[in-house]
User: Which sequence fits this backbone?
């Protein structure tokens, strides 16, 4: 949780990405890290796992709303895309 | 190990549609899955259901298919938990179970959580009924090979989970070899099969008949390409293909692009897109265009296109049925990894 009481979307995304890729160092990546290419190196498999987990946890279907998947440009861009759509997300039960 | 029970997903797997989206008339059983299930039942193999639906869906499936289900888990939890409950309910070993689901995520989740379970897509099922795991009496060379392929996949996935490096490093460690080649007439049956069976990586969504494929293979305006995949765990054979048309306005169009979901996560679609980009650039094209049906099923393909620098035209929306993804070609072509054999470097 951040100071404002908003859910830590960025933190949850880091956790999802670290699990999907098996790369623990992603738990410490900056918001500017690109998700494709040299950053996280998202591919069709890890990308599918990410999108499904985002849908499950936040109820946001990125692929349905964003034809070019621009929301996946960076970690920060994806967090902002989700936060715009779930302002009152209660956070994970666990 | 013989499979004693097949656990079926319902939506778009055992049923030819989505139960909750079908209104008053629930979707009919999928004819190919029903045929496979009936064959397996005749060999004494049990059936069970793991579905994200209310319990009525299982009752409907039993009535519509005429199959008896030894266990049914309906709910919105993880599929791996449903699979584990069925294993306990029936008192079977995890490696005596198969799980069939059309959804890549669900398959990955079950494979990860219960690795002993044989995890299959509906695409695999027509072949799978001939595998030794499902039929001790049938031991054709082909069936034996398919069974091996699954054993290979399980060994590969086990090592991938234990591997510390990046995915690219893992693919190199596996000795991954992707072979891109010009299609010959003899490739038409397998290309046809790919056009029928692939959904998650398919730009068209319509089957292409063998005579049409032979015409395209012989056509000077088209280039038909096959992609084969192997590594030190085994040979997957032809896993993908594409058709490219060179147009007069310096736009090259990929009129069909398809890949088996068996090859997902192994760098194949990325290698193919990188090679196509270089090919079009060398051929004098300014733009490489990929018209693509936009559906929830082929999101993995859209991810691959986005990762490879393709974008749909401005003003496009995710609601339209077909979007043209394209990539301007001036600029450095993407690197084709060293483990990819192409017609140019053969």
Assistant:
């Amino acid at each position: 949780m951040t100071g404002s009481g908003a859910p830590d979307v960025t933190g949850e995304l880091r956790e999802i990405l670290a699990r999907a890729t098996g790369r623990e160092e992603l738990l410490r990546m900056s918001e500017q890290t690109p998700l494709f290419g040299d950053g996280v190196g998202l591919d069709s498999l890890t990308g599918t796992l990410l999108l499904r987990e985002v849908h499950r946890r936040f109820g946001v279907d990125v692929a349905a709303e964003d034809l070019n998947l621009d929301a996946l440009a960076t970690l920060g861009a994806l967090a902002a895309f989700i936060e715009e759509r779930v302002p009152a997300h209660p956070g994970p039960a666990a | 190990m013989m499979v004693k029970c097949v656990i079926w997903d319902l939506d778009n797997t055992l049923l030819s549609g989505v139960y909750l989206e079908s209104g008053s008339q629930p979707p009919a059983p999928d004819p190919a899955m029903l045929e496979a299930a009936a064959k397996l039942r005749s060999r004494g193999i049990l059936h069970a259901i793991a579905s994200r639906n209310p319990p009525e869906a299982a009752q409907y499936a039993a009535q519509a298919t005429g199959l008896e289900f030894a266990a049914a888990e309906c709910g919105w939890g993880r599929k791996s938990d449903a699979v584990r409950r069925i294993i306990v309910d029936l008192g079977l070993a995890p490696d005596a179970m198969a799980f069939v689901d059309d959804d890549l995520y669900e398959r990955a989740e079950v494979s990860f959580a219960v690795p002993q379970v044989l995890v299959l897509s509906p695409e695999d099922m027509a072949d799978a009924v001939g595998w030794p795991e499902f039929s001790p009496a049938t031991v054709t060379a082909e069936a034996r090979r398919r069974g091996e392929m699954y054993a290979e996949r399980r060994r590969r996935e086990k090592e991938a989970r234990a591997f510390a490096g990046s995915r690219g490093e893992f693919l190199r460690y596996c000795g991954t070899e992707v072979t891109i080649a010009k299609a010959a007439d003899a490739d038409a049956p397998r290309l046809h099969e790919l056009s029928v069976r692939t959904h998650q990586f398919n730009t068209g969504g319509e089957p292409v008949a063998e005579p049409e494929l032979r015409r395209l293979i012989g056509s000077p305006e088209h280039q038909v390409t096959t992609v084969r995949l192997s590594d030190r765990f085994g040979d997957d054979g032809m896993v993908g293909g594409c058709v490219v048309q060179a147009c007069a306005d310096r736009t090259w169009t990929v009129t069909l692009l398809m890949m088996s979901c068996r090859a997902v996560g192994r760098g194949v679609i990325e290698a193919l897109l990188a090679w196509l980009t270089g090919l079009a650039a060398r051929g004098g094209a300014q733009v490489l265009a990929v018209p693509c049906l936009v559906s929830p099923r082929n999101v993995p393909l859209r991810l691959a296109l986005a990762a490879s620098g393709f974008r749909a035209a401005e003003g496009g929306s995710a609601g339209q049925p077909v979007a043209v993804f394209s990539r301007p070609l001036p600029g450095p072509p993407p690197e084709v990894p060293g483990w990819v054999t192409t017609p140019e470097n053969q």
